[in-house]
Amino acid sequence: MVASPIKVRPLFATPFAEVRLPGCERLNRELEALFLQRETEEHRNPTPSHVPQQETFESRFNLFRWTDACVQELRAFMLNAVGQMVLETTSLKVHDLARLSFQNHTWFHITRYAGSFVAHNHPLASWSAVYCVRAGESAAQHPTSGVLRFLDVRQGANAYLDPANDTLHRAFALAPVEIKLEAGQLVIFPSYVFHEVAPFYGSDTRITVASNCWFA
């Protein structure tokens, strides 16, 4: 008897998307100047879910309510990309999505030397996104400086490793995914995914905008 060809399917897959904003230099300069200007107690998140770090400033979650032109330009880019992600990964059509109420919490982070962010997820949203305004200086002696790290959603999947499962292809790999963001890069992912930011060892600043989105 001849066996039929084996069929491999990526079940329990987790969708990730990456979008690049072309010609982002002018917008990022304006965003950086605005965020640095408003890195004040007035705009600091008053109820952080983590232990605040002196090296990392987290703003309030109302960024996309600001009327500044550069913020509204970023808002249009990010939320349109999230909408495209929904259309690509669900059975919803454009007219279905148009009938939904689209809500978000959005904020910015300014990170300086040794700043990081603990592993967390966002259980009260469906989609999350991170946009890089400024990647910050690379540190040769710290190759993972400032990387955005996504943890495996399959708890316990790496409890036993041997040569037959320790070198799985990326889609099935039992290891975190690390992304070293570049200016103008947007990453979109399901909000249930735990993620963290490794300590940043550049001598300047790393600036990102994060958004959690939900629909009704």
Chart the SSEs and their pairings.
Blueprint: E1 17-20, H1 25-37, E2 56-58, H2 69-89, H3 94-98, E3 102-111, E4 117-120, E5 127-134, E6 148-150, E7 177-179, E8 185-190, E9 195-197, E10 206-215
Antiparallel strand pairs: 1-8, 2-3, 3-10, 4-9, 5-8, 5-10, 6-7, 6-9
Helix pairs in contact: 1-2
Write up this protein.
This protein is α+β, with helices and mostly antiparallel strands. The protein has a single domain, classed as q2cbj1_9rhob like domain (Jelly Rolls), CATH 2.60.120.620. 18% of the residues lie in helices and 25% in strands. The protein contains three helices and ten strands; from the N terminus they run βαβααββββββββ. It has helices spanning 25-37, 69-89, 94-98, and strands at 17-20, 56-58, 102-111, 117-120, 127-134, 148-150, 177-179, 185-190, 195-197, 206-215. The protein has a six-stranded antiparallel beta sheet with strand order 1-8-5-10-3-2. Helix 1 packs across helix 2 (69-89). The longest helix has 21 residues, at 69-89. It is globular and about 75 Å long. It starts with 16 loop residues before the first strand and ends with a strand. The mean pLDDT is 96.
Q: How would you write the strand order of the largest sheet?
A: 1-8-5-10-3-2
Number of helices: 3
Question: Which CATH architecture would you pick?
Answer: Sandwich
Total E-strand runs: 10
Helix content: 10-25%
Radius of gyration: 19 Å
* CATH homologous superfamily identity: q2cbj1_9rhob like domain
Provide the CATH topology.
Jelly Rolls
Task: Identify low-pLDDT runs.
Answer: none
Distance N to C terminus: 54 Å
Output the CATH class name.
Answer: Mainly Beta
What share of residues are in beta strands? Answer: 25-35%
Given helix and strand content, the structural type is alpha+beta
| Average pLDDT for all residues | 96
* Number of structural units classed as domains: 1
Q: What is the element string, with H for helices and E for strands? A: EHEHHEEEEEEEE
- In this structure, how is the largest beta sheet organized? 6 strands, antiparallel
Inertia-based shape: globular
